[in-house]
Structure formats: structure tokens, C-alpha cells
Task: structure prediction
Amino acid sequence: MGRFHRHDDGTVHSHDHDGPDHAHTEPGPGRRGRHAAAATTDAQGLAELIGDHGGYKTGRERIEILQDIYAENDELAAANRAALDAAGVHAVNLMSSPGSGKTALLARTLAALEGSVRVAVIEGDIETPLDAERLGGMGAQISLLNTGDGFGGECHLDAPMVAQALRGLDLDAADLLVVENVGNLVCPAEFDVGEHRKAMVYAITEGEDKPLKYPVMFRSVSAVVVNKMDLAPHLDFDMDLFRANLTAVNPDAQVIEVSARTGDGVEAWLAWLTAPLAS
Ligand code: MG
Ligand code: ZN
Result:
């Protein structure tokens, strides 16, 4: 399927995890998440970085490792989905850049659905319970997954992480699960976590060009919630151009314009989100 994690410079890198549930680590002292190495300047970090980006030197071996990782991920994703199906829970994997307003939209969502739909949320963040706390007390079950806590600080959620987070939820007492992924426009799109549908939140402050720059993400979703529409009068955001760019990579994506801040348009998002529950 060719689902490798490619950098803009053409190198391939793998997603390994240090967690006890997921031991695809290559030899090397003190390994962290693969992306974490890029942010370090110490010698060890540099060695890890060179290791990551020397991928083509051992191309076949690396590809085999990646295939193993994806195969294991997809196996666990299928198990997650089976558990959700058995409990009658519909799951949506919600992705975006950091700061696009996923949590704000979810706060609106929980407030609107409280009392009618039993919602569970897996809150994925590298660090902090901040977003999980923000969604507390709104009638939903919340399961926090910090990837910095045993998963190498990964910048995405994968099926093993979601499997762990699911243990913190009573699925029989839920109708809808929203997985709020780690804020990142790249690798979250590459991991099936056991969801039924994928959606993303996109803020108009991010410009019109991102569907072309991050096509894997935009291609993976069936809905794009275009957020922060209340800021439109203050920006030069060209909606027609954005829609044309999106159509170029994903002609089937539904576009839902909202302002999580004011609540405008949120009804259409709720309709998309809950549509499978009616049947
Ligand atoms: Mg958030
Ligand atoms: Zn990642």
C-alpha cells in the first residue's frame, strides 16, 4: 500500500513507540518518539536524527520494519473497531493542526448533545490534561491519552494508544466516540485507530494552500470543518480558492463552515457527526 511516513526531503521514517504495549524499537540508548529527535541538539538526539534520515541506506530493512508497524497497527485498529461495533458505538477520528479549534468545537458539541446522545471522548495530547479538563463536567466520558506518558511523546495517536484509552471508557454507556487526535497535519492521517469515519477541523487562519501541502491528511477525511469563520472579515482568506484546493486532492469531502466561538454553523457539524446514529 506504500503507506510510509515520508518527509519533504524524500526520506522515510518509521513510527516506533517506547511504550510497553508497543515494542518496535530499533537498538539505541534512550530512544524517544522518532519526531522528538528532530527537536534536540544534543549528540544523542543528533545520532537519532541521522538514524532516522539515513533510511535509504537500509531501505529494504526499513520498509520491512514499517510494514510490521502498520500491520500491527491495523490489526489492533480492527480489534478496536470490533469492540466499538459490539457496543454499538460509532467512532470519529478528529484531526487538525494545533490551535485550529478541535477542543472548542468539541465543547460546543458536548453542550449541544448532552441529554440526547451519550458521548465519549478520547483526548489525545502529547502533554497536559488541559483539554480533557476543559471538556469535563459536560456529560461525556473523557479518557485522556498523553503520548508523553509511555508512548514516546508521539505526535499522533495510533491503534495501540487508542486501545489503551478505550479501557478508560464504558462503551456500553456510549453511542458516539470522538477521538481528538494530537494536533498535527501529517502523521495522524496515516494511522487507522479503529474509527468509522475521519474528519478534520481547519481554521481559516491557516490559509488556502494547506490541502495542497498536506494532501494525505485532506484526502483521508470525509468532512472538513472550516472553523473561525467569525474572523473572516479580518482576514484575506479566499474560501473559493481553499475549496478549489481541497477539491483538487479530495473532491468528496464535505465542507462545513463554522465558528466554534459563536456557535454559527455548528448545527451542520452536529448533523454530520450524529447522522450514523439515526440508522
Ligand atoms: Mg485540543
Ligand atoms: Zn507522528
In short: Confidence is low (pLDDT under 50) at residues 1-43, 45-55. The pocket of magnesium ion (ligand 1) is lined by residues 102-103, 131, 180 (CB under 6 Å).
